[in-house]
Each structure stands twice: as C-alpha cells, then as structure tokens.
Amino acid sequence: MYNSIFASIISNGEFTGSEFAISTLTAFVCGLMIAGAYTVKNRYSKSFLTTLILLPAIVELVIILVNGNIGAGVAVAGAFSLVRFRSAPGRGQEITSIFLAMAVGLATGMGYIGVALLFTIVVSVINIILNITNLGADGNGIKTLRIMVPENLDYEGKFDEIFNRYLKSYTYDEVKTTNMGSLYKLTLSVALKPNVSEKEFLDELRAGNGNLDISLGRMVDSMDSL
Predict the structure, then answer these.
(1) Around 115, how many Cα atoms within 13 Å sit in the side-chain half-sphere?
(2) Are residues 167 and 76 part of one domain?
(3) 167 and 128 in one domain?
(4) Potential cystine with 179: which of 2, 64, 87, 183 (Cβ 3.0-4.6 Å)?
C-alpha cells in the first residue's frame, strides 16, 4: 500500500481518459495548494496566483503527450528554460513557486499522483511555516532612509550627531542629484535603536535639511531577486 503511493498510473507512455482526468485534476489541486500557500504573508497579484494554479496542469498536458519520447522530452525541457526570461526580475520565492508548479506538473504528467500530492503538501506546509515565523525577515531591522538636501548644504557629517543618537548603524548607499541639480538625494540603510521615536528622528532631520522631503521605510532587498 505504501509503495503504491509512489507508483505511476501511466505505463509505457500510454494513458486512458480516466488516467488523463485524474492527472489533470491532481495538477489543478496541487496548483491551488501552491497558490494558497504563497498567499500567506506574501505580496501577490491575481495574475501570479492564476499562473501558479494553471501552470501544473499546462506542464502536465505537455509531459503526458510526450511521455516515453526522449527527444521530445529534451525539446520540452529546453522550452521550459524560457521561463527565466521574464519582463521583470522575480523575487526568490516567486521563482521557487514557479519551479514547484513545474515540478508538480512533471510528476502528474508522468502519472506519479501520490508523489505530486505528497510533495506539494510537504513543501506548502514548510513554506507557510517559514512565512509565518518570518525566518530571516528584517533580522537586523534594516530600513531605507531617503533625505533630500539643497545643493548648497554640506551634507557630509551634517546629520552624524542625529544618526548617532537614534541609530544603531547606518551606511550611505547612494548620493545623487535631482531637480536639475538643485537638490541632492541621500539614500542610506539604517537600523533604529530600540524604543526610539521615528517621528522625533524625522523631525530632527527635517530641521537640518530645510524641511525638504524625507522618507523612512522597509528596505527592498535586491538579494531577494533572482
């Protein structure tokens, strides 16, 4: 009974209507579980969730049609490599979810229904646990601080005294000119000290930069992209 879970319902590359229906239904169910797990504490769009739901079934159809044909299988694998050429860089978890959906499609297309369901459940549960526990998320409390300063202000060392009182650490990531060169835009990665007031911190910075724009928000980690 245990070994039957890991057996394929398709033999010798031939399949019946019922086997095709079971494989397709399983692919859709797995896609729904993958999409559902991704929604837990993640930013997402309707388009991306639709992709995660439909991708296993699409891959399953392709694989089930070329099952047993090595040459066709190699060609399909080459076509799947085109997934990496996306219009926008994807976050690591997006790419992982896409490859999970493709792996499930491969499994269901080859008839390994039990493997597909078991693997989807295990990975989805682990994914949800990692998202809920926020493992590795903002471990150092790093945020992005952006300060606009006029061109005639010597910003070097101007805010150090304020930074030392409110921040555990800070690094200058970028300095650029804006507004036809009349302003400088300073971008820093900062870590606030415990129990400090963000409002008081920003108010003191405003007094030093002539009340120009200042923003403090969550750091968008470029390492999260693949």
Answers:
(1) 16
(2) no
(3) no
(4) 183
